[in-house]
Structure formats: structure tokens, C-alpha cells
Amino acid sequence: MLLLNLKLIIGLLLVIYGADALVDGASSIARKAGLSEFIIGMTIVGIGTSMPELVVCLNGAVNANSAIAVGNIIGSNAFNTLIILGLSALISPIAITASNRKVDMPLNLISAVILTVFGLMNGLSRLDGIIFLLLFGLYMAYSFKYAGSPQEDEKPAKTRSIMAAGIFIILGIAGLIAGGQMFVNSASEIAHSIGVSDKVIAVTVLAIGTSLPELATCVVASAKGHNALALGNVIGSNISNIFLILGISAVVHPLSFGVINTVDFAALFAGALILIIGAFTFQKNKLDRFEGALLFLMGIAYVVLQFIMN
Predict the structure, then answer these.
(1) Where are the domains of the chain?
(2) Which terminus of the chain faces fewer neighbouring Cβ atoms within 10 Å, N or C?
(3) The CA-based dihedral angle spanning residues 143, 144, 147, 150, taken in that order and rounded to the nearest 10 degrees
(4) Nearest 5 degrees, angle CA 56-CA 57-CA 63?
(5) CATH architecture group of domain 41-153+197-308
């Protein structure tokens, strides 16, 4: 048990340092390329921080364990929106652009709707997986075609060369993946030892563990004043998780949604809806601290409820 606890701590440290490097590198490239931090967060950072989910879901698909694969993605997306964006907004209110309101946030909700519809029908077949991958490709193509320019309120990034920024991004993603995987493996062993089911482990322990990269990246980004990158990271990660990660996993092995219940889908929808509502309430065009607190408390309640229902 001492060794497992040590691995948890080492994994967490790798995630924190990886996030710091990734934020610095990505925000620098955003400035040099003339792109908004939101677009960089949604694409490079969003996909990069979703790699731990890919590892876990592929492992679940290869071993025909749909509870692990599907539960991890639903739990991770709920955690991303409720806990991570909630905490980020508590640290620093997040500006919401017109493009976020009209395109990105609705697409975040639509991706949750599509996942639910496919899941409630017959789960995800290999053909469904291919459809998901095509949808992901279309979303990425759209994102870069209509990539926004930096916003006036975006905090200037550190000046780095493209090569240096690229190295920071690679090292950051490597640290996030290695640290997240170390944390996940250790936490899963501890959870199994106390009798927690695969499904609950997937939507809590694994979801939180594989979302550590997003958590660390968003908290660091918010603390450094790059909260557009934080919002882009969460939305990009959520869409990547559904269309890219589950798409690949379903192609490897069809996935069943039998273990997923109403509470899980409700958590997925609640976060996506509050994001859209937050753009028009209280501090308009901002996800403010009140809405951040609401998201965060809902996320805590969801995690606690999972263990009560175990």
C-alpha cells in the first residue's frame, strides 16, 4: 500500500509539471500563429490531455470491458465540465465569446446528445465508431477553418521560439500521460482492494485520474490568466473523448452501455446546459464564480452519489 501511495504522489507531480509546460508552450504557439488560445486549447491541448482516456478506453475495448471504456468517458466528461471548469471559474471568471455561445458550447451539448442516442439504441457498433471518427474529423476541420484570432483580454504569453514551444508541448503531454497513467493504475488497485465495482471505478477513480491532465492544465491556465485556453481545453477534450476516443474504441470492439444509468447521463447533460445558460446569466458572456461554484458542487455530489449507489 505504501508503494501505491508513493506512485499516486509521483503521478500527481508529473501531471502538475506537465500541465505547466503544456500551457506555456501552447499559449506561446497561439500567439505566434495568430490563433486564439481557445482554438489551441480545444485542439492541441484538448486532444493531448485526452490521451490517458484513450489508453484506458482501448484497454477496456481490447478486454471487452464496456463498463471501463464507456464509464470512463462519461465520468471524465462530467468531471471535466463540473469539477474542472467549475474550479477554473472560481479561480478566475472565464470569458465566453460569441463563437463559444453560437458554435462550441452547442456542439458540446450536441455531442452529449449523440452519445446518449447511440448508447440507448444498441450501444456503439464498429460502424458507429467510424461515424464518430468522421464527425470528429469534420469538427477539427471546421475549428481550424474558422479559427478565431486572439481576444483582446487574452493575457500575453511568454515569448518562446516555435521549436522551444513545441518541445514544451511534447514534454508537457508526456508528463501528463505518464503521470495520469501512474495515478490511474495505483488508484484503481486501491479501489479494487476495498470492493468498488468496475463501473463505479470507471466513472470516478479512472475518470478523475484520466482527467488530471485537464484539471492541472485548466487550473494552471486560469492561474496564469489564460482562461480562454482552459475553456477550449475542456470543450475540446469532451468532444475528443466522445468522437475520437470512443470512436476508436468502438472500432476495436463494439461497446455496450448497459451499466450506464440515468444519473450518469444527467450529469453529462447538466454541465453542458449550465455552460450555455452561464453565457446569458449573471455576468453576461462570462462563466462567473457563482456558476463555477454551482458546477463544482454538482460534480462533488455526482462523485459521492456514485459511491452511495455502488
Answers:
(1) 41-153+197-308
(2) N
(3) 120
(4) 95
(5) Up-down Bundle (1.20)
